Amino acid sequence: MALNKIKNALFGNEDDGDEVLEEEFYAINDKSYRDEEDKNGSKMILIEPRAYSESQAIADQLKKRNSVVVNLKRVTSDQAKRIIDFLTGTLYAIGGDLQKLGNGIYLCTPKNVSVQGKMTEKDDDKKDVKIEDEIEY
Questions:
Q1: Which residues, at least 6 apart from 67, have a Cβ–Cβ distance to it below 8 Å?
Q2: What is the strand order of the sheet 44-47 is part of?
Q3: Contact 103, 82 (CB under 8 A)
Q4: In the chain, what are the domains?
Q5: Average pLDDT for residues 120-124, to the nearest whole number?
Q6: Distance from C-alpha of 46 to C-alpha of 68, rounded to nearest angstrom
Q7: Strand ranges, E, within 34-96
Q8: Residue 59 CB neighbour total at 10 angstroms
Q9: How far is it, in rounded angstroms, from Cα 126 to Cα 137?
Q10: Per-residue pLDDT tens for 24-39?
């Protein structure tokens, strides 16, 4: 006992808390996970704008390096065209990409996200037809 006290006084205590238990190392709370997720921009955001003024919120998410799926079915055709024009400019500025997923549904991805493959629709004649980048309702 006395020998341990002398040893600790001369050489320091080996159990000073420098060791981190494996459970503590891998344990992460929900807040830390969300904070790390926000830094990495690894979210997929679904937005259904009802007016052109909401396009700024979509651009803000893209600037945070989050992917955004935009459903334009609740806006008029003219508003949808304006939103797409605004998002196209935003995506050009950040080096992102815009892909049409369906009628009025678009995927906006920042530079850090790569999307592989193309979306096709089956025609009545059983031919594959590429989806056009036009806004039709």
A1: 43, 44, 45, 107, 108, 109, 110, 113
A2: 44-47, 67-71, 105-109, 97-102
A3: no
A4: 42-137 (3.30.110.150)
A5: 65
A6: 6
A7: 44-47, 67-71
A8: 19
A9: 22
A10: 656 667 666 566 656 6
